[in-house]
Backbone:
């Protein structure tokens, strides 16, 4: 695998290491070399200084030797009998001259006892006479007093060693003269010294006086040296600045000194006489030229060596760095491969060090990672399977639940006994709760899966609030509580947002409020909040609040409220039920809608739940038009609309049929996709309601095939309003996720209705597609947003708008039935009472009666009666003159409407609430002709029993009607009772017995 | 100014260096430079000052001279008594004194130390102990009375015995255990009771001593004491000036001048406990004649000779003992330089034309005589001036000593360095007939005079110092008149010190005491 592309500015570790190693090695080597050089140089200098000191010491020793020599000469001469003999006769000079060679450069002087010079011998030269001994001096005087020895003396010519020896007359031991041998410190002597000590010699002295070292050096110093400039004159030496050890023996300090432009190492030592008087300074000077050359050579050698070391260091560093980075690169490449998913990649490094450990760990990590990923994939698959399972389960649960709900409602309409009604209500209530729980779970799983989407559509706030009120008013009333919705006046009614979600949240909060309170009111307030979000001016924030006077919540527990699966304590679940998901869902929904939710509560005093929602006002400038509020009292009509209902589940089919038939639509049934395709191929439909999950061919496939049908297909339908393939197809699915909706639209469907089917939504959706199509836009079915306000369907003059009435009482059909029953028993005599009142000219009472019945009729959604009562009331009120004609006429209308209502209501209720079963046989799954004889009924019955369908009962009755055998009738009754309690196992047993007794052939096969 | 140095030196001697205000400083190493290495470290075997210079710090005797040399004080013997007849000496020994090898000092050790030198029956007796005879003269018996009392019985009353016991030669007490252990090697493994103990001897180079922490007296201030041998006097002086040495001895006149003028060095002198002399063999003709001997004395220009030869580092001698020794007779008037008188005396002695003879001269310079050959030459010239023709004879040093002890010379040059500070040590040893016995004569003039002998013996047997002094003064008078010698010079012993060194005392016996020395 290729390593990552180098980033700009990226530096390889190898380069870094190589540079670091090189720099380290070079620096340390340079340091060592520098140190070495320094040591060598200082060693050179030290050597030179030592040489200088040695030379100085040698020179000193040589001077002492010369002094000893001078003493010897003096002693020799003084002891010589010839000298003593010649002292008097003046032949001394000759004697000395003849021996001149012995004393070389020394001056030999002989004085007689009177201190007169007797003879003097010397090598002529530069100012030699200035070194002569003064005849009357201390030296001669002392020598004549038998003192002897040598010492340094200052002469006008400079320092000198003078050795004195008395000449003694041995016979008497009386001194007769003195020999003075002078060794002048002249340039000649210095050259001799230089030759011996191999260094230049410098002598500095003061001609005028001797100085004690302690008193320091005075002016007037004179210097001679073997270092001479071109003119031969001695160079100047700045001796005064030099430090000396006055004792002179050990203290000479060699220092650098520039003499005549050349650098020397010089050292000086004082020449002290025996009285510690300094007569001059003797210096040795070594030219530094010697070491300069050596220094240059060493420098060159060291530099060359350094260069070589640098090169070697560089190469070594590169190699070393390479050896370090190679395994790292291998590791990096392996990691890179792993990062790309090649977890089988292994690093093959066997080295037993940290990198080796790393490699092994990496290999181990790779295999572990692979295992984990495998597990993770499995886990994800399992999770997906669970999701699918959940979705399927929801479908599977909803379907029978719908059946339970639907059938319970049907049963309730069928006039059960009070006991049965009680049970049915409980069943219905339980199923309703179960449905809510399932919805919660679906919402939760949708939210958790991130699949919950918030719609933006126009809605009316008042409608949302009305819906809430409709739903909970009755429940509140039952508990003796009131539900009050109080939106602020400054909130525009037309808004854009997700009304269903807002409603869902409100429902949740209100139902909680009702659940946990037993007194007072539940108040819903809506306020406009100043928008914090400044990025959009046309957004407003609505603050919804739900207040109750219930049990309240401990403040410390409010945080827990919105956590999933949490209720304040387990006892609540026991007492009040619920999944504990409601408030969490609310929270998530609110958050999705850009708001927040919180609670303020005082235990035992009540709670206030608040939530904010960001919505847009549906301004005139907006391209969006609010959807019409579904008219409560208008019966949706789909008169003459030809609809193909594709639904495999007979119960769902039954419910849908029930919903659709009453709109006047013409329904055709298909039980699966295949049949649907066939149906579409054969006939033209204004709309197709398509289930998704079906045997043989599912909805998606069917839609795909329909959309592929050739226009005109077999030619029979050519010229019809629609191309068949463009028929609006509306999906009906229990898959409550918007994912499914997308899938449906993608598959070519036009719209989507989720099950359980909301009748209003069903009508609305069908109308949306059908009427749009009918207004002359046959080919614009894909035109997404309806721009026209759908015209209200003509008010059909039905005496009672059951749905509306039901909605008003929260779908409580039993209550409706009761109300109707009460109504019929209480109000059937109202025409007579009104007439009576009129006869008694009590129009006010008549008007009041009219008013009363008007209100009741409005509540019952008995629009014609309401209108009639209203008109009558108006007439009564506006016509105090008792103009009978219009009143009588209107009275007649009123009477007819009331009569119609009272007459038709049971029938209507029958039809709407329970008699729907009657239509089922006609819309049997097989879409075949209704069974005409008992065999057919048995067949049907068998199917329904097999399908665990409650409709089986219908057939039992039909079969019962055709049987005479009391035994069989008894069996039928048993079967009926089985079916009543949904005991399908026994039902099947009893059916088998009946069928066997009837002797129907072929039934057995059908029952297998 | 000729005597100025001597005067100065005497002044220095008189005024011992004042101790520094801070008091003695402890510790440190003192390095002493000297001309010769030791010959041995066994006090019984040594015979020279260089050896005793070292052993005097290692060993102690029963008694010792006090620092200024004026009198004898207790050392290992805390007190002692002498019987009325002067023959029985009882010494009470110090207790809790230990030798350097750890063994205890007691009466047995004293008996051992003496017996091994005088008792031929002693297992460690040797016949080559040079000073045993003179030191333990008249000792008949030595015995331990108890562990800490020693009784020494003399054959006769002998006053100098006390001084003899103070000598650093022969007299010191050694550790019997160490001797038994090392036997002959004791000479290089000495063990005594002194303030310093022996550490190491690098022959020809140095001897290292260390502080004896168990010293019974006040332990020395110094940690170490090193005797460094530097034969060349100039080198030695140079070492002293360059701080390589703290002190040195064996200075000559020239060195003395240098030290005297140095700001960092100082000089201390000790009394010239010596004499250089010209001995005339009185058993040989013509020196058996007193007039001849006197003539020789008159013939020598002693003043010039000493000045020329010693260069102010000695004083002319007129008596055999130096002036610093008690009993010195200063009333004696030396023979003046008078060649005429000499000639007259010779003539009166029967040698009007003089005579031929030999003058023996030492081959090596001695502390008391720096230039013996030159001295001999000068003397010869002086003598020739009066008609005495002396041939200068010399031998190697050992032969010279043996031959002169055997009386083979006519005249010889020799000197004596006092070893115990007693006049007896000079007069009896060098001039009594008792010591004129060939071949081991210390009296090389072989002078034997009954009057003198009587005086000297009486002095030996007398205990009263006054009496003794008087006897010695008379003895000097006899010697002056008899003139067996021509006394030549008493040279001054000088030590040079760095000024940072204090408490070094040149003792009267030419040894140097370091037990109170310290360094700034």
Residues:
């Amino acid at each position: 695998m290729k390593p990552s592309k180098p980033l700009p500015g990226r530096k390889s570790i190898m380069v870094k290491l190589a540079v670091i190693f090189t720099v380290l090695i070079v620096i340390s080597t340079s340091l060592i070399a520098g140190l070495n050089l320094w040591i060598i140089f200082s060693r050179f200098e030290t050597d030179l200084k030592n040489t200088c000191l040695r030379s100085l010491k040698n020179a000193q020793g040589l001077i002492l030797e010369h002094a000893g020599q001078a003493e010897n000469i003096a002693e020799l001469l003084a002891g010589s009998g010839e000298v003593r003999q010649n002292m008097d006769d003046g032949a001394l000079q000759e004697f000395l001259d003849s021996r001149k060679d012995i004393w070389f450069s020394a001056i030999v002087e002989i004085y007689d006892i009177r201190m007169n010079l007797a003879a003097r011998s010397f090598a002529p030269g530069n100012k030699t006479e200035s070194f002569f001994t003064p005849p009357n001096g201390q030296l001669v005087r002392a020598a004549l007093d038998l003192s002897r020895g040598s010492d340094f003396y200052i002469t006008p010519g400079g320092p000198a060693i003078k050795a004195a020896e008395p000449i003694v007359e041995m016979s008497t031991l009386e001194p007769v003269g003195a020999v003075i041998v002078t060794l002048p410190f002249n340039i000649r002597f210095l050259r001799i010294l230089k030759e011996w000590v191999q260094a230049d010699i410098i002598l500095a002295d003061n001609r005028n006086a001797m100085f004690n070292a302690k008193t320091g050096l005075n002016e007037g110093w004179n210097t001679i040296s073997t270092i001479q400039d071109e003119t031969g004159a001695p160079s100047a030496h700045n001796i005064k600045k030099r430090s000396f050890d006055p004792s002179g023996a050990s203290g000479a300090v060699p220092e650098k000194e520039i003499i005549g432009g050349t650098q020397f190492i010089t050292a000086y030592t004082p020449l002290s006489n025996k009285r510690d008087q300094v007569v001059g300074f003797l210096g040795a000077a070594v030219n530094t030229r010697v070491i300069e050359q050596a220094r240059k050579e060493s420098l060159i050698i060291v530099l060359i060596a350094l260069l070589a070391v640098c090169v070697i260091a560089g190469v070594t560093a590169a190699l070393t760095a390479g050896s370090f980075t190679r395994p790292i690169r291998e590791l990096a490449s392996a990691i890179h491969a792993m990062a790309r998913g090649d977890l089988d990649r292994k690093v093959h490094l066997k080295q037993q060090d940290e990198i080796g450990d790393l490699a092994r760990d990496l290999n181990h990590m790779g295999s572990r990672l692979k295992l984990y990923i495998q597990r993770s994939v499995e886990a994800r698959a399992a999770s997906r399977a669970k999701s699918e399972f959940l979705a399927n389960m929801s479908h599977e649960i909803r379907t029978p639940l719908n059946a339970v709900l639907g059938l319970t409602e049907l049963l309730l309409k069928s006039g059960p006994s009070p006991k049965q009604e009680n049970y049915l209500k409980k069943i219905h209530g339980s199923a309703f709760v179960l449905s809510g729980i399932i919805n919660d779970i679906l919402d939760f799983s949708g939210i958790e899966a991130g699949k919950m989407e918030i719609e933006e559509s126009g809605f009316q706030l008042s409608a949302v609030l009305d819906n809430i009120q409709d739903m909970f008013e009755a429940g509140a009333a039952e508990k003796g509580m009131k539900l009050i919705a109080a939106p602020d006046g400054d909130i525009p009614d037309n808004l854009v947002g997700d009304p269903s979600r807002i409603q869902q949240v409100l429902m949740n909060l209100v139902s909680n409020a009702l659940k946990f309170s037993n007194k007072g009111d539940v108040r819903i307030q809506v306020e406009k909040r100043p928008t914090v979000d400044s990025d959009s001016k046309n957004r407003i924030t609505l603050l919804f609040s739900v207040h109750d006077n219930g049990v309240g919540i401990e403040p410390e527990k409010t945080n827990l409220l919105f956590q999933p699966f949490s209720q304040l304590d387990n006892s609540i679940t026991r007492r009040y039920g619920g999944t504990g998901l409601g408030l969490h869902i609310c929270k998530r929904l609110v958050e999705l809608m850009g708001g927040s939710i919180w609670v303020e509560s005082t235990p035992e005093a009540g709670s206030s739940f608040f939530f904010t929602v960001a919505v847009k006002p549906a301004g005139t400038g907006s391209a969006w038009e609010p959807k019409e509020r579904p008219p409560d009292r208008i019966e949706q009509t789909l008169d003459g609309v030809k609809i193909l209902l594709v639904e495999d589940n007979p119960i769902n089919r039954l419910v849908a049929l029930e919903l659709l038939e009453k709109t006047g639509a013409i329904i055709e049934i298909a039980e699966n996709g295949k049949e649907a395709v066939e149906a579409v191929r054969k006939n033209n439909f204004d709309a197709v309601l398509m289930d998704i999950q079906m045997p043989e061919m599912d909805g998606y496939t069917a839609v795909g095939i329909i959309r592929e049908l050739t226009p005109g297909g077999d030619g029979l339908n050519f010229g019809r309003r629609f191309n068949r393939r463009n028929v609006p197809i509306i999906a009906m699915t229990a898959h409550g996720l918007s994912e499914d909706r997308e899938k449906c639209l993608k598959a070519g469907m036009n719209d989507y209705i989720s099950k359980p089917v909301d009748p209003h939504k069903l009508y609305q959706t069908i109308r949306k597609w059908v009427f749009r199509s009918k207004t002359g836009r046959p080919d614009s079915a894909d035109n997404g947003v309806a721009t026209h306000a759908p015209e209200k369907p003509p008010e059909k003059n039905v005496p009672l708008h059951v749905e509306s009435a039901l909605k008003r009482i929260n779908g409580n059909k039993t209550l409706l039935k009761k109300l109707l029953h009460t109504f019929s028993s209480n109000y059937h005599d109202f025409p007579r009472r009104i007439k009576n009142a009129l006869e008694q000219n009590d129009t006010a009472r008549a008007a009041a009666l009219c008013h009363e019945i008007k209100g009741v009729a409005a509540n019952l959604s008995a629009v014609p009666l309401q209108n009639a009562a209203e008109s009558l009331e108006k007439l009564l009120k506006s016509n105090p003159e008792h103009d009978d004609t219009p009143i009588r006429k209107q009275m007649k209308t009123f009477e007819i409407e009331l009569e119609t209502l009272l007459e038709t209501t049971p029938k209507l209720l029958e039809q709407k609430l329970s008699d729907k079963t009657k239509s089922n046989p006609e819309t049997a799954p097989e879409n075949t002709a209704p069974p005409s004889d008992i065999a057919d009924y048995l067949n049907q019955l068998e199917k329904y029993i097999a399908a665990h369908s409650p409709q089986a009962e219908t057939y039992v009755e039909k079969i019962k009607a055709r049987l005479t055998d009391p035994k069989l009738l008894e069996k039928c009754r048993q079967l009926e009772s089985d079916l009543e309690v949904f005991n399908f196992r026994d039902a099947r047993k009893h059916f088998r017995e009946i069928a066997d007794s009837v002797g129907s052939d072929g039934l057995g096969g059908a029952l297998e | 100014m000729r005597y100025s140095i001597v005067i100065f030196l005497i002044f220095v001697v008189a005024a011992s260096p004042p101790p520094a205000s801070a008091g003695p400083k402890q510790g440190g190493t003192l390095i002493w430079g000297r001309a010769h290495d030791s010959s041995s470290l066994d006090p019984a075997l040594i015979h020279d000052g260089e050896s005793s210079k070292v052993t005097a710090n290692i060993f102690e005797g029963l008694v010792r001279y006090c620092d200024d040399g004026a009198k004898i004080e207790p050392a290992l013997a805390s007190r002692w008594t002498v019987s009325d007849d002067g023959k029985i000496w009882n010494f009470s020994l110090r207790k809790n004194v230990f030798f350097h090898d750890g063994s205890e000092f007691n009466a047995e050790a004293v008996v051992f130390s003496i017996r091994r030198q005088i008792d031929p029956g002693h297992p460690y007796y040797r016949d080559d102990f040079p000073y045993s005879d003179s030191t333990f003269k008249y000792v008949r018996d030595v015995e331990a009375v108890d562990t800490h009392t020693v009784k020494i019985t003399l054959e006769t009353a002998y006053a100098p015995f006390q001084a003899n016991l103070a000598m650093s030669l022969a007299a010191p007490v050694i550790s019997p255990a160490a001797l038994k252990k090392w036997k002959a090697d004791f000479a290089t493994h000495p063990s005594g009771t002194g303030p310093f103990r022996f550490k190491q001897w690098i022959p020809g180079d140095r001897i290292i001593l260390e502080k004896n922490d168990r010293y019974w007296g006040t332990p020395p201030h110094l940690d170490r004491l090193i005797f460094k041998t530097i034969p060349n006097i100039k080198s030695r002086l140079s070492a002293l000036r360059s701080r390589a040495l703290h002190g040195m001895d064996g200075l000559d006149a020239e060195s003395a001048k240098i030290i005297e003028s140095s700001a960092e060095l100082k000089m201390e002198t000790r009394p010239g406990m010596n004499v250089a002399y010209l001995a005339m063999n009185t058993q040989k003709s013509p020196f058996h004649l007193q007039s001849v001997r006197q003539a020789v004395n008159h013939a020598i220009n002693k003043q010039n000779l000493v000045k020329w030869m010693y260069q102010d580092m000695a004083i002319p001698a007129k008596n055999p003992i130096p002036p610093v020794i008690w009993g010195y007779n200063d009333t004696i008037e030396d023979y003046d330089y008078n060649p005429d008188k000499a000639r007259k005396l010779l003539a009166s002695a029967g040698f009007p034309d003089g005579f031929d003879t030999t003058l023996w001269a030492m081959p090596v310079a001695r502390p008391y005589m720096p230039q013996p050959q030159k001295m001999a030459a000068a003397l010869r010239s002086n003598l020739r001036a009066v008609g005495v023709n002396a041939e200068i004879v010399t031998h190697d040093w050992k032969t010279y000593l043996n031959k002169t002890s055997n009386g083979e010379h006519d005249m010889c040059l020799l000197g004596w360095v006092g070893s115990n500070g007693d006049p007896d040590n000079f007069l009896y040893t060098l001039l009594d007939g008792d010591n004129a016995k060939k071949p081991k004569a210390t009296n090389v003039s072989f002078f034997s005079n009954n009057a003198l002998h009587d005086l000297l013996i009486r002095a030996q047997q007398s205990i009263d110092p006054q009496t003794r002094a008087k006897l010695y003064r008379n003895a000097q008078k006899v010697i002056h008149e008899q003139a067996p010698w021509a006394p030549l010079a008493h040279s001054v012993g000088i030590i040079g010190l760095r000024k940072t060194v204090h408490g070094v005392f040149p003792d009267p016996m030419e040894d140097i005491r370091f037990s109170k020395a310290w360094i700034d």
Notes: Chain A touches chain B at residues 64, 145-149, 166, 168, 170-175, 214, 246-250, 274-277 (CB under 8 Å). The first strand of chain A starts at residue 107 and ends at 112. The radius of gyration of chain A is 66 Å.
